[in-house]
Design brief:
This protein has about 270 residues and is an alpha/beta fold. It contains twelve helices and eight strands. Helix 7 packs across helix 12 and helix 8 packs across helix 9. Its EC number is 1.5.1.2. One of its GO terms (molecular function) is pyrroline-5-carboxylate reductase activity.
C-alpha cells in the first residue's frame, strides 16, 4: 500500500488515520493535510502523524485519500493536477462526486476509486462502498479494500449505484440517530427521566443491531417476533403506519439520493 496521505482531516479523515494506526500501519507511513494549524497540531500530538501541504502529500504518497467536503474539491484538484499521474492512486471520499470529475481534472491515466463511507468509521464500524474509475484496476480496488477494512466493512458496487448508497448508508446513521432521539423524547413524555430513557433506547438499539448483524432472520421476522397478537407492539406499529412513517422514510432516502446526484452534476461542466 505504501505511504497514505489523507487530504482533509475532518471527522472521517481522522477516523481513517486512527483506524489505519490501529490496524498496524506505522505513523511514519501516514500523512495528512489540514487547513487549520491548531487542528494539525492536535492530530499530530494525538497520533504522531505528520501534517504536510498538498504538494508534499502528492509527492510523497502512493495513495491520496481525498476527504474534503464536496464544495471544497475545486482547489484540491487544482493543486493535485500538476503533481499526480498514473503512479498515484486517488481515493475519493467526497459524497456525490463521480470518478469522471477527477479523471477530467487530473492527468490521463490517473486511477481513481470512489468511496462512500459513513460516520461509524470513528468506532471502526463503517460501511464503505467502493467503485472503480476508468483507470482503476483490480489491484487498486484491493488496496482500497484493505485500507478501509481497518475501519469497518467494505462492499464493491457499480458507480451508478453510488448515489443510492450515499442516501442509504452514507446518510443512514443520521436516520437512526433521529429515531433514537424521538424515542428518548417519547420516554420523557411518558414520565421517564432522560438518562433512563436514553439508556433503555441506546441499549435496545445496540441489541437490535447485533441481532440483525449476527442473525440469519429477515428484519420482518425479527419484528414479528416482538409483535404479539393484540399486544403493545402491534398497537404502536399501527400508529407508525397510520402516520406514514414507512412512506416518509422512503421519500427521505429518495431525497438524499437526489441531492447526491445534484452534487455530482454541479461539477459536470468543470
Amino acid at each position: 500500500m505504501g505511504t497514505i496521505a489523507v487530504l482533509g482531516a475532518g471527522k472521517i479523515g481522522e477516523a481513517l488515520l486512527s483506524g489505519l494506526l490501529q490496524g498496524g500501519r506505522d505513523a511514519g507511513e501516514l500523512l495528512f493535510t489540514e487547513r487549520h494549524p491548531e487542528r494539525s497540531a492536535e492530530l499530530t500530538g494525538r497520533y504522531g502523524v505528520r501534517a504536510v501541504e498538498v504538494a508534499e502529500a502528492a509527492e510523497a504518497a502512493d495513495v491520496l485519500v481525498v476527504a474534503v467536503k464536496p464544495q471544497d474539491i475545486e482547489p484540491v484538484l487544482t493543486e493535485l493536477a500538476p503533481l499526480v499521474g498514473p503512479s498515484s492512486l486517488v481515493v475519493s471520499l467526497c459524497a456525490g462526486l463521480p470518478t469522471a470529475l477527477y479523471e477530467r481534472r487530473l492527468p490521463e491515466g490517473t486511477p481513481v476509486v470512489r468511496v462512500m463511507p459513513n460516520t461509524p468509521m470513528v468506532v471502526n464500524e463503517a460501511m464503505s462502498a467502493i467503485s472503480p474509475g476508468k483507470y482503476a484496476t483490480a489491484d487498486h480496488l484491493k488496496v482500497v479494500e484493505e485500507m478501509l477494512a481497518c475501519v469497518g466493512k467494505v462492499v464493491e458496487v457499480p458507480e451508478t449505484h453510488q448515489d443510492a448508497v450515499t442516501a442509504l448508508s452514507g446518510s443512514g446513521p443520521a436516520y437512526f440517530f433521529f429515531l433514537v432521539e424521538a424515542m428518548i423524547d417519547a420516554g420523557i413524555l411518558l414520565g421517564l427521566p432522560r438518562a433512563v430513557a436514553e439508556q433503555l433506547i441506546v441499549q435496545s438499539a445496540v441489541g437490535a443491531a447485533k441481532m440483525l448483524a449476527e442473525g440469519t432472520e429477515h428484519p420482518v421476522i425479527l419484528r414479528e417476533n416482538v409483535t404479539s397478537p393484540a399486544g403493545t407492539t402491534i398497537n404502536a406499529i399501527r400508529e407508525l403506519e397510520k402516520h406514514g412513517v414507512r412512506a416518509a422514510l422512503l421519500a427521505a432516502i429518495e431525497a438524499a439520493r437526489d441531492r447526491s446526484v445534484q452534487l455530482g452534476k454541479a461539477h459536470e461542466q468543470d
